[in-house]
């Protein structure tokens, strides 16, 4: 979102069970759409105590339990499958990462734009 909507939003990313690395296929898919990722895998506790306008959880409702954000900020959930759980050939797994990325790039900006229209 920082690369697409950085004028209006500053996005942060963290997880409840980070792996300690950014998945190589995620980096590849981001590079394919022109994003050079320079972040790292983070535990959401790093952001405890910070105030956010909006906290969007993106875990897969069917496959994992979403953590509860106890910090300040409005909350919204958008479920996406975890592409790191994909199985199959390398190309099939990469296509799963592409599909989730495309889905996120369609749905999350709309959520953020809708939120801004309600909270100018």
Write the layout of secondary structure elements.
Blueprint: H1 2-5, H2 24-32, E1 51-57, E2 72-77, H3 90-118
Parallel strand pairs: 1-2
Helix pairs in contact: 2-3
Provide a descriptive summary of the structure in words.
- The chain has one domain: Response regulator (Rossmann fold, 3-Layer(aba) Sandwich), CATH 3.40.50.
- The chain has three helices and two strands.
- The mean pLDDT is 90.
- It has a two-stranded parallel sheet with strand order 1-2.
- The chain is globular, with a radius of gyration of 15 Å.
- The longest helix has 29 residues, at 90-118.
- The chain is an alpha+beta fold and 120 residues long.
């Amino acid at each position: 979102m920082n690369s697409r909507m950085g004028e209006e939003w500053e996005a942060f990313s963290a997880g409840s069970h980070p792996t300690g690395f950014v998945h190589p296929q995620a980096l590849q898919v981001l590079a394919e759409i022109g994003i050079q990722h320079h972040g790292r895998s983070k535990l959401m506790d790093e952001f405890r105590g910070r105030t956010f306008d909006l906290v969007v959880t993106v875990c897969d409702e069917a496959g994992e339990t979403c953590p509860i954000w106890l910090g300040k900020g409005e909350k919204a959930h958008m479920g996406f499958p975890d592409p790191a759980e994909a199985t199959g050939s390398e190309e099939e797994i990469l296509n799963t990462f592409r599909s989730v990325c495309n889905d996120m790039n369609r749905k999350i900006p709309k959520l953020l734009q809708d939120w801004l229209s309600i909270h100018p």
